[in-house]
What does this fold into?
Amino acid sequence: MTYLKNILNKVKNNEMSIEEASLLLRNNSYEDMGFAKLDHHRKIRTGFPEVVFCQGKTAQQVSNIVHKLAEHNSVVLATRATREQYNAVLQQTPNAVYHEAARVIEAGTSEIEDESRYILVVSAGTADIPVAEEAAVTARAMGSRVERLYDVGVAGIHRLLDNKDIIDKANVIIAVAGMEGALISVIGGLVDKPVVAVPTSIGYGASFQGLAALLSMLNTCAEGVAVVNIDNGFGAGYFAHMINK
It folds into this structure.
């Protein structure tokens, strides 16, 4: 049971007045752990709890943060996590699972809000799958149905066109590509729904660690395309869920 639900139940059962509840919520908007200040009101403001970015944090720091967030929320996500960090998290949060390809730790998950509407995550190549999976896991954890279509880049465009049915039925599409990022313009020109483009750092030297794909996506002539940062699968999944819901 979440922190907010606990307070609401106390008010409902006359164990706490509305004024006391308001004061408690106002004064406990974040928790200072010394090395981190946890924003417990993030879900109240934005609809989803604070997400932990694990890169640069110690395993113990990640474990402590996830544990505290799990006390207040039914779903906790931690991105760019290592296996070592996950093993530490398990010591305090035994229901946590590790999505290896996505490098995401997930404790709890949201019910799918509407099975008839889904986000389709498309990757140009197999090497783009880790970023695509970060997007897929994020969107699913937030409550969206997610389908996947991987390794359908423009070098073999028939692979994409053979799957036109699942593309047409999607409510939102996340398109993930490295190299020159051409997949996004192709998809954007085929569909009548929002496309969230994710450039990846996959490619040879002149791709400049994803900059070439990023610029290509920003300069696309296809309408209805929004672009997130290089390798930002999390941001794409989050944004796509907001559109989908």
About this structure: The first strand starts at residue 30 and ends at 32. The mean pLDDT is 90. The radius of gyration is 20 Å.
